[in-house]
Each structure stands twice: as structure tokens, then as C-alpha cells.
Amino acid sequence: MASQIAQTTAMALGVPIVVASLNERYRNWYRSAHGASPAEIEALQAFCSQANLSESAFAVPDVREDPYFANDPAVTGQQKIVFFAGAPLRDPDGKRFGTLCLIDSKPNDFGEGRLALLESFAAIVSQDICVRSAARYAVRDLIEAEHDKCDLFDLAMTDPLTKALNRRAFFRFAEREVLRASRHVKPVTAMMLDIDHFKRVNDVHGHAAGDEVLTRLVACLTANIRDEDLLGRLGGEEFAMVLPETEPLRAAILANRLREAVSDLKFSGKTGRFSITISVGISEPGFADIDILPALERADTALYRAKQNGRNRVEVAPLDLGEPSLAVA
User: Are 31 and 62 spatial neighbours (Cβ–Cβ below 8 Å)?
Assistant: First the structure.
């Protein structure tokens, strides 16, 4: 569109070269020119910029006879500019941001009628630039607004330290998974886990080391589960997971893989390098459960049993709490 305006200007006013000479802010993204190669346009920009202080349309029939332009390299050098005319480019507030320039290699007697027509084309170019500029800012504002929405979502839904789902978001999404599993008769498994002797980490190595443990734990868990699996921090060192379309025994296999991956992590503390372990309890919603809470409570009971039985282990809770849990590690 921009180059078509320049071409139309050249045809209407009978000149071979038309260049929109713009302030650098606009030149970086808008180009309207006709009759010159990109390299020639760059050279002509320096010559045309001399007209950017003009407040009205002008025409110099022969710049070789004008003391201001006669010794310019574009006049004496390869470009051999002879005729030069221009009209200001302005924003709606009247602020100048460039000049629409006409160039020829031979003299040209430019009358008032063609000057008026040049001003009209300059107004068209100005409007085109302003519309495009407004669109650019509008798109930028939309992108920034979308980023703000994402930031607000993160603040509302995630734990600020670990970036796992916070308690509220976890239960909200978990309830959806339980209802979806019930509707489509699909399995779903709940998992509770926490860090063994985490208080000792804070007491011995400091809270900064404790924060690093929590952050790297979540990163490790996230790297070993699927995108559709839910991971939430319920508080302190206690985390919960919901695994859609996963039976408890398959979840136990995953839990042991997570347990081994976590035990491989190494941390630097005040007394040297140290590692951590996790204990895990697993359960599944019952037929009549409409939310994840009963399954999480059973998983928490299994987690407590894992702690009693020596920690760094996984236990699966049966639906019937009268039966013993199944130890799988």
C-alpha cells in the first residue's frame, strides 16, 4: 500500500522518484518510495532530510542554482539530483514527522496546482502512517493486556515459590477431573506426598535451602509427569497430585519413579551437600465421590502409614479403609 501511494504520486506529478523521508522512529517500520533501489533510497534519505524543517510544500526547479543545495553530494555526485520538491508529513496534532519528497534528474517548473496536489498526496501518506502506527500500538496494547491476564492467572492459580498449583486452584481443577472420570467411566487417581524430615532441612541448612528444595522438587516432579496431570502445593512441604485416566497401581509405578528421581537430587547446604526423600500415599475416588477430597483423605492416610513404616516409600490405600494398605516400596 505504501509503495503504491508513492507510485501513484510519481505518475500523477510526472516525476521519476518519490521518497517519504521520515523521522527515525517511523523509518524503522514504514517505507514508501518509488523509482529508486533500496540502496539509492538510503542515500537519498540524507538529502531529503534537509527538507524536514519546511512547514509548507515547496519546489526547487533546479537545485544546482540554489546555494543551499548546490554543493550537496547528492547533487554533485552519482545521484545528480536537479529537481527537488516536498510537502510536510504530519500527525493529527500537526506535529512533523517527515517529508514527502519528489526528485528528478532534470529541471522541472512546478506550478501552484501541482504543489496543491503534492500536499494532498502528503496528507494521504500521513494518514496511512498514522493509521498503521495506531494499529501497531493497539496490537502492542492487546499483547500487553494478554500478558497482564496471564500474570494475573499465575498469581491467582499458582504457588508463588514453586509455581505448582495453589491449594484453591488444585481443588478446583481436581473436582473437574473427578466429574469427568465419573461421566466417561474412566479411572483417576489421587496422590499425596511430602518431603521426609523437611523441618530438619530448614533447621540445619536454613530457609533459603528449604526454598530451593521445594522449588527443585516441583521442577523434578513436573519433568516426570504428563501435561494433563495436576500438581498442587497444599501447604509447607505437602503436595498433591491427580492423575487422569490412571489406575492406582499404575500411579504407584509412577510414584516410585518420582521417589527415585527426587532421591537423586543433590543440594548444597551449610554443612555440605545433602539429598532428600519423599513419602507417597495413593488412593482413588469411590463410586459415589463427587469431588477429590475423600480420595485425598485416604491417600493422606496411606502417606501417614508410609511415614510410620520407615519413610521414602509408597503405599496405596484401598477404598475399604478396613483393609490394610498395599505397600509398593
Answer: no
Helix (H, G, I), strand (E, B) or coil at 183: helix
CA atoms of 64 and 68, how far apart (whole Å): 9
pLDDT of residue 322: 46
Contact between 294 and 309 (Cβ < 8 Å): no
According to DSSP H, which parts of 158-206 are helical? Answer: 167-184, 198-205
pLDDT per residue as tens digits for the range 176-199? 888 888 888 899 999 999 999 999
Coil/strand/helix, residue 184: helix
Task: Work out whether the CA dihedral 315, 168, 235, 217 comes out positive or negative.
Answer: positive
Q: Which residues of the chain have pLDDT under 70?
A: 1, 28, 137-155, 319-329
Catalytic (active site) residue 237: yes
Q: What's the pLDDT tens digit per position in 94-138?
A: 888 889 999 999 999 888 899 999 999 999 998 988 888 777 766
CB atoms within 10 A of CB 127: 15
Q: List CB contacts of 50: < 8 A, sequence separation 6 or more.
A: 68, 69, 72
Vertex 54: Cα angle to 25 and 59 (nearest 5): 120
Q: How far is CA 278 from the centre of its chain?
A: 34
- Placement of cell 496422590 in the chain: 191
Closest of 247, 136, 118 to residue 181, by C-alpha: 247
Q: Which pTM was predicted? A: 0.56
Distances in whole angstroms, Cα of residue 7 to Cα of each of 33, 83, 131, 169: 7, 18, 20, 58
Output the nine-digit C-alpha cell for 160.
508463588
**Catalytic pick from 40, 55, 177, 237?**
237
- Asked if 314 and 252 touch (Cβ cutoff 8 Å), the reply is yes
